[in-house]
Design a protein that fits this description.
Number of strands: 6
Number of domains: 1
Strand content: 25-35%
Largest sheet: 2 strands, antiparallel
Structural class: alpha+beta
Strand order of the largest sheet: 1-4
Shape: globular
Length: 99
C-alpha cells in the first residue's frame, strides 16, 4: 500500500469514527470521483515513472449538486511534482436591495 492509499484510508477511517461517513446527509463527498475521466486526467502527482492521484477536493453532501467539474491542469505545477487540481462550481447569486 502506497503513502497516498494510507493517507486516504486514514482520512476515511477518521470520517467514519467522527460520524461523518461518506453517504450520510452531511458527510463529505470526494469530488474527484464524481466524474468519469481518463487515467491521465486524474493524475495529480508525477515523479518519474510514478503517477498517482494523491490530491483531493471534498465538499459537503449538500453542495454536491453544485459541482460541475473537477480537473487537473497538467501544464501547471503548483507544488513540486504536484499538478494543479481545480473545481468548477455553480453558485446562484442572490440580489440584495439596499435603500
Amino acid at each position: 500500500m502506497g503513502i497516498s492509499e494510507v493517507v486516504m484510508s486514514a482520512m476515511m477511517e477518521h470520517m467514519v469514527v467522527s460520524g461523518t461517513a461518506l453517504g450520510t446527509l452531511m458527510g463529505p463527498v470526494i469530488c474527484n470521483t464524481l466524474f468519469m475521466k481518463q487515467e491521465a486526467k486524474l493524475v495529480t502527482y508525477v515523479a518519474g515513472p510514478v503517477k498517482r492521484t494523491v490530491d483531493y477536493i471534498m465538499v459537503q453532501q449538500e453542495d454536491k449538486a453544485k459541482v460541475r467539474n473537477v480537473k487537473v491542469i497538467s501544464s501547471e505545477e503548483c507544488v513540486l511534482k504536484h499538478k494543479l487540481l481545480v473545481m468548477d462550481m455553480w453558485f446562484k447569486a442572490r440580489k440584495s436591495w439596499h435603500r
